[in-house]
Amino acid sequence: MSLKVSDIGEKELVKYIISNSKEITPDDTAITKFGSTNLISTSDMLIQSRHFPENMSYFDMGFKVVTVNVSDLAAMGAEPLGFLLAIAVPKDLDLDSFKELIDGVLSACDYYSIPLIGGDTNEASEIIISGTALGLCDRPLMMDTYSIGDVIAVTGDIGHAALGFNLDVLDNVYVKKALKPLARIKEGIALRKSGATSATDITDGLASELHHIKRDLFGFMIYEELLGISDEYRQYCENLDLNYLDLVLHVGEDFELLFTIPKDRLKYLDIDYRVIGEVTDSDVVEITLENGFVESIENRGYEHYVCE
């Protein structure tokens, strides 16, 4: 019996594509020599039934497709250059809804200072939006060029979007993070200029990203007490019968940057950040819990194709 794509999941499919192409950069984006600099390019597709919660507005759908692509530019420390939009919609979609969606795209392009420069339209049974973001960068930040002793940090709170997806109120900081995440483009540029050694964006969960960027003979130690999990967050999770660490580690959609940097370079960072751990020589990904116990962090996060 032949394997199905659901048997191996998205990351293994991507590995297959990369292994059979000599030109693909195994990082957050493609990197192409472009005169005296590098063209940074990335593409991401969003499907209504898979990526947009039912309570998400058409405006926020449009905004998000730009965010997820710009977030990859941010992880490389790139300066935005241009955005391409390919969109397919049902023929019976209200015109006002289509206009609201495009308004969201244009608003996000203004917010990130990345002009909409072209694209394509088509018909589909549901809304499908594919974006391509282009940027420029002399020295891109790679995802796995860290050294033992570097600290591990994030640009903001993680796990907030994961909680927001489980709440049914609108005027709430967690729900806002779920419905309208923001890419950290300015932070990515600041990281590159300040001497960060590596970076990636958190889309599939902290645990999944850590395992994805791990190299042989290197390890990561994360400290629960440094994750900034508030009493309010824990209480929400308890009320909903959710494991707070599971949300923080394994869900994602925060679009914060996960980065490494030598400890003596932290003083040059002029952005908000939170140190959460360190690069070690343990060859494992683990967490020190608040009670002092050390546990391995399971390689689990959001992944396309895998049956839930």
Question: Can you give a write-up of this model?
Answer:
The chain is an alpha+beta fold and 308 residues long. The protein is 31% helix and 25% strand. The longest helix has 19 residues, at 58-76. It is globular and about 55 Å long. It starts with 9 loop residues before the first helix and ends in a 12-residue tail after the last strand. Residues 304-308 have low confidence and may be disordered.
Major pleated sheet: 7 strands, mixed
Residues in helices, as a percent range: 25-40%
Structural class: alpha+beta
Spans with pLDDT under 50 lasting ≥5 residues?
304-308
Q: Please state the CA-atom Rg, rounded to the nearest Å.
A: 19 Å
Helix-strand pattern, N to C? HEEHHEHEEEHHHEHEHHEEEE
Looking across the biggest beta sheet, what order are the strands in? 7-9-6-10-8-11-12
Total helical elements: 10
Distance between the termini: 21 Å
